[in-house]
Design goal:
Blueprint (H helix, E strand, L loop, with lengths): L6 H4 E4 L4 E3 L10 E4 L6 H7 L1 H11 L9 H8 L6 H8 L11 E5 L38 H10 L5 E5 L8 H12 L4 E6 L6 H7 L6 E6 L4 H8 L3 H15 L3 E7 L7 H8 L5 E9 L13 H15 L7 H9 L7 H15 L8 H7 L1
Helix pairs in contact: 12-13
Length: 371
């Protein structure tokens, strides 16, 4: 039973398009179970879904390699890399399927106040005005309907774990409508919110203070100071102010999560140093390493530069006790791709025009590579 992932037995993930999927690793058309707009009741669907029941039977039969994308987790675990499956097992040890939804991850919309240099309008509504500048497809605003929000509210009393993602969760008030309902009906549910933490309103604090001990805020932090501002578009100082305010008023502490791109690959130690000795930081993770788009991926660097920095980071990371082993193991196993210099700097040049300054002035390694 230890090899069975608890995801299909405990709940599912809902994308901003309303797609119901196995988990966050299986969001997309190939893994879509249904759409929340097409079903009447999430609890009934959880029990009766033919696709979901098929996946459960495959797990119970031990056919892990035949389940896509679930097999990806098992492949990574063979390399001693912790996966999303481990997070489910930690939350639901020795769990026995009882037809009740215990876990739910949802994204209410792609509404976001940021234009991260590694993102697009698929995940951020703010990117729409720039897509033609990059000759890319413009994705529409996606937002769950009020009827779908009500469907989510109906399962809140039985949840043990709720995950809210974006877009930017603090930019969509529907998320706080759901949180308010959760805290009124279920005091025991643990809540993870993945946020850029650049927005914080008084009504947000009022809702969070109803049950702050059950809130876990995971802050996306891809740099410090000017590098952060270039990568994520929001202001680094504002993020720090908001974190300090929530810590002071509600005693909420934070997990820092870093998405490694070629824009911060050479400056990760600056992030480690900045946050390692701050009392309101619980952990630092960089297990998410960007593979797409290639214009932002470290796989597009020259191989020698890629390998030299990888070795340095793996050696340095072990001296920071708040960095999890999952991050180090994942970086060790991450391989180089094909150098894409022209693609990289075409993207950087366009982002420089939007940001108003050159990222290469703050990352000497990129400037040297540019030559």
């Amino acid at each position: 039973m230890n090899d069975i992932c608890q995801a299909p037995f405990t709940g599912f993930t809902i994308s901003p398009q309303g797609d119901i999927c196995y988990c966050c690793m299986g969001v997309g058309d190939n893994y879509q179970l249904s759409n929340i707009e097409k079903i009447d009741c999430l609890e009934n669907f959880f029990v009766t879904s033919e696709k979901l029941n098929k996946v459960r039977k495959e797990f119970e039969a031990g056919n892990f390699s035949s389940i896509i994308p679930c097999s990806n987790c098992y492949k990574r675990e063979k390399k001693n890399i912790n996966t999303v499956r481990h997070a489910y097992d930690k939350k639901f040890p020795n769990y026995i399927y009882d037809t009740k939804i215990k876990f739910l991850e949802f994204t209410s919309s792609n509404v976001c106040n940021a234009t991260c240099s590694t993102c697009s309008s698929l995940f951020s509504s703010s990117w729409k005005k720039y897509e033609t500048f990059f000759d890319r497809k413009e994705f529409p605003l996606n937002k769950l309907s009020k009827k779908s929000i009500e469907k989510i509210k109906k399962v809140l009393p039985g949840l043990e774990w709720l995950v809210i993602k974006g877009g930017e969760p603090f930019a969509d008030e529907d998320n706080f409508d759901i949180l308010s309902e959760l805290f009124n009906t279920n005091k025991n549910c643990n809540v993870n919110i993945v946020t850029n933490m650049s927005i914080l309103k008084d009504n947000h604090i009022k809702i969070l203070e109803k049950n702050p001990n059950k809130i876990n805020l995971i802050v996306s932090m891809d740099g410090t100071e000017k590098i952060y501002n270039w990568i994520r578009s929001t202001r680094f100082e504002r993020v720090i102010e908001n974190m300090e305010k929530l810590y002071k008023e509600l005693n909420i502490k934070f997990d820092i999560t870093i998405t490694i791109s070629l824009y911060n690959y050479f400056n990760l130690v600056d992030i480690f140093d900045y946050f390692s000795n701050i009392s309101y930081i619980k952990s630092i993770s960089y297990a998410n390493i960007l593979t797409a788009p290639l214009s932002s991926s470290i796989q597009s660097l020259p191989k020698e530069l890629f390998e030299r920095q990888k070795k340095k980071l793996c050696n340095v990371s072990i001296f920071y006790d708040r960095i999890d082993d999952r991050s180090i193991n994942h970086l060790r196993s991450f391989s180089h791709g094909i150098e894409n210099k022209q693609l990289v700097f075409d993207h950087i040049d366009k982002m420089n025009k939007i940001r108003g300054f050159d990222i290469c002035d703050h990352v000497p390694e990129l400037k040297a590579w540019r030559g």
